[in-house]
Specification:
Layout (H helix, E strand, L loop, with lengths): L1 H7 L9 E4 L6 E3 L1 E2 L1 E2 L5 E2 L5 E3 L7 E4 L4 E7 L9 E6 L8 E7 L3 E9 L5 E9 L4 E5 L8 E2 L2 E2 L1 E8 L5 E8 L6 H46 L13 E3 L5 E3 L31 E4 L5 E9 L16 E9 L7 E4 L16 E4 L8
GO biological process, one term: system development
Protein name: Attractin
GO cellular component, one term: Golgi apparatus
């Protein structure tokens, strides 16, 4: 075999990609990361190394744009590596390409560029790669980036060499667009105005919904008021006649009116409670017993005539009011003795307490 013959003369058949080999089987120890095979004749495509190591070629790790890669060469099989290669194709034609790299141990670095119309040429040679970050920018005005008609316009190659394992290398190519302040403010203003418009629409919808709920509650209250129970009452209405002074007076007849059932009125009862003050014909408490609907019969004026004008039925009207319910105790008011004398016969009248005609529940 060829490796046996080469071993006899002290030379390993490693395709110029290695200087040492295993004396037992002739397997070469490749010096470039990503080149594999017994004679360093192919690339490690399973780990994204592409290229052709034959005929003085090499293998390159394909770097993805806008990602930072870290390569750790600290394994036992990495002790023979002295070189590692990378390549990148910037895809965005209108954005500059930024390149960064730093190495944990002193190394050398070359950067070359290849275009669709020109062969590979060096742009950075013999650059020291250390723990200090090395950064450079490739301008879009000087290079044509992207792919046209399936043809790659620009490819960058990075060669890191003259190092001794173990070490790690951090490398990246990125194309981040610059911040356009005008476009940023336009976008921000548009989003802000859109948010205000959405908030205004939601507020209008909420107002419509609240109005709908108020109307529904009003309808429910009206239905409850309309469905409240009815009761019959006896009302005594006096007949009126013209008095000599032009007013109205009770009409006297020779035939006495039929007797009415005796009415027992408790002092202070109802809304009047005393004398001839009006009393409610109905007091219907609402839910919660904080308010009630109070109903009264009101006699309409006749305008000096014995009968009500035409169109008015019996001259009576039913009035209702929503009142609040307070405590049931009757309020007291202070009155001055109209005779100017107190109960003890003094000159100054003494204030006397008298029950009010309007208790707290009639507000």
């Amino acid at each position: 075999m060829s490796w046996t013959l080469n071993m006899e003369v002290g030379v390993c058949d490693c395709n110029e990609q290695g200087q040492k080999c295993n004396p037992e089987n002739g397997k070469c120890f490749c010096t470039t990361k990503g080149i594999i095979g017994d004679h360093c004749e192919r690339c490690d495509t399973a780990n994204h190394y592409l290229g052709d190591p034959m005929h003085h070629g090499s293998c390159f790790y394909d770097l993805t744009i806008d990602y930072q890669f870290t390569f750790n060469l600290s394994k036992r099989e990495d002790q023979y590596y002295t070189q590692i290669n990378f390549r990148n194709v910037p895809p965005k034609h209108d954005v500059d390409a930024d390149f960064t790299i730093h190495c944990s141990v002193p190394s050398k670095m070359n950067i070359t560029i290849k275009t669709a119309t020109s062969p590979e040429k060096a742009i950075v040679t013999g650059q020291n790669c250390t723990s200090t970050l090395f950064k450079t920018r490739f301008l879009k005005s000087e290079h044509k980036f992207g792919v046209e008609d399936n043809i790659t316009l620009t490819t960058f190659f990075v060669y890191v060499y003259d190092f001794k394992a173990p070490l790690w290398i951090s490398i990246s190519f990125s194309q981040y667009p610059k911040l356009n302040l005008q476009q940023f403010f336009i976008t921000f203003s548009s989003c802000f105005l859109l948010l205000l418009l959405v908030a205004a629409i939601l507020w209008k919808i909420k107002q419509k919904y609240d109005l709908y709920r108020r109307r529904q509650r009003l309808f429910v209250e009206m239905e409850q008021m309309a469905s409240r129970p009815f009761a019959s009452i006896v009302v005594e209405v006096e007949r009126r006649n013209l008095s000599p002074s032009g007013g109205t007076a009770p009409l006297t007849t020779s035939v006495p009116p039929p007797p009415l059932p005796p009415k027992k009125r408790k002092k202070g009862s109802g809304c009047g409670g005393a004398g001839d003050s009006p009393s409610p014909i109905a007091l219907e408490p609402c839910t919660g017993n904080r308010a009630a609907v109070l109903s009264l019969l009101i006699r309409l004026p006749t305008g000096g005539n014995p009968y009500t004008p035409s169109g008015q039925s019996a001259g009576l009207a039913l009035a209702s009011a929503l009142v609040s319910l307070g405590n049931n105790s009757t309020r007291k008011v202070s009155l001055v003795d109209p005779s100017g004398k107190g109960q003890d016969g003094g000159k100054h009248g003494k204030l006397s307490r008298k029950s009010s005609q309007h208790p707290d529940q009639c507000v």
